[in-house]
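Aim 2, interim progress: modelling of the nicotinamide-adenine-dinucleotide-bound target.
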Amino acid sequence: MKVDDIKKVAVIGAGTMGSQIAEILARVGSYETHMVDVSDELVSNGLKAIDERLERYFVSKGTLTAEEKKATLDRIKCSTSIEEAVKDVDFVIEVVVENLGVKKDVFKKLDASAPQHAILVSNTSGLNITEMGAVTSRPDKVVGMHFFYPVAIMSLVEVVRGAHTSDEVVQFACELSRHLGKEPVVCKDVSYGFLANRVYGRMTGEAVQMVWERVASPEDIDKAVKLGYNLPIGPLELADIIGAWGLTAWAEEDRIRELGPDKGRLHPLVRAMIRAGYRGGKGKKGIYDFWNDVLSKW
Ligand SMILES: NC(=O)c1ccc[n+]([C@@H]2O[C@H](COP(=O)([O-])OP(=O)(O)OC[C@H]3O[C@@H](n4cnc5c(N)ncnc54)[C@H](O)[C@@H]3O)[C@@H](O)[C@H]2O)c1
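Predicted structure of the complex, ligand included:
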C-alpha cells in the first residue's frame, strides 16, 4: 500500500500520545481518523485536549484558521469500539498503555476486525514488535512507529521492524512519517529503547551513578553535559521533567527481561527516590529535589 492510498485511519488509545497522534493524522494527513478509548469520558477528554492544543498552538498563532480547526476536529470520529472503528481502515496505530499483554489483546482485536490490507502499527516506546505481530495473521504488516512527545513539535519517528515486517511496510511507515512532516529512522526491535532512548538512557544511567557517588550535584552534572556537548538540556533535568524515574520503575520487569538482571534492575538511587515519592513529572519532585532534600544530608 502507498501513503496516497490511505483514506481512513484509526488510533487506539486517546491518552497523552494517542490524542496527539490522532491530531496530526487529521490535521496534517487530512485523514478521516477514528479515535478509540475504553470509555466515552476518556475518548472525549482526548478530543477536548486536541481542541485546546489546536487553539493554543495553531489558531492563536495564525498558522491554522478557525475553519481549518473545525475541519480537523470534524475528521476525528470518537468511539469505544475497536471493532467498529477499524472495520474499513487502511492504517491503525495502537497507543494504549505500555504493557505487552494489553497490547497483544489489542492486536488480536485489530487483526480480527481490520481489513486484510490494513497495516497495524504500535507506538510502543520499547516493547517487542515481533511479539505483537505473532498474535496476528499478518506479522508482515505489523511495524512500530515511535513518535516523540510532544508530537506536533518533535520531528523524529523511529520506524521499528519486527522479524517478519516486510520491506514494503517499513517503506510505507517511512513515507507516512515524511508525509506527516517527520524524519524517520529505521531500527530493529531487538534494541530495547530502540535508538534515541537507548543512548539517552545510558547517559542518564551514568549521571545517576555519579549522583549516587556524590561526585557532583545534579545541577553541575547537567551543566557539564550541556556546556561540554552543546546540548539544550541535561539528562537529569530532562528525566525530572518527563517523569522518567517513575516510568523506569514501571518498566523494571520489561527491562530485566530485555537487558538481564544486572542492567535491567532499578538503580538503588532511583529505587530510593521512588520509595520516597520522588518520581519526577511536570511540577513534581525528582532527582534535583531528592539531592537537596535527602541525598546531600545522608
Ligand atoms: N508519554 C510519552 O511521552 C510517550 C512517548 C512515546 C511513546 N509513548 C508510548 O505511547 C503509548 C501510550 O502512552 P501514553 O503516555 O499516551 O499513555 P496514557 O496512559 O496517557 O494513554 C493510554 C490510553 O490508552 C487507553 N487504553 C488502555 N487500554 C485500552 C484498550 N484496550 N483499548 C483502547 N484504549 C485503551 C487508556 O485508557 C489511556 O487513555 C505507550 O506505549 C507509551 O510507551 C509514550
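Residues 241 and 283 are 8 Å apart (CA to CA). The first helix runs from residue 16 to 27.
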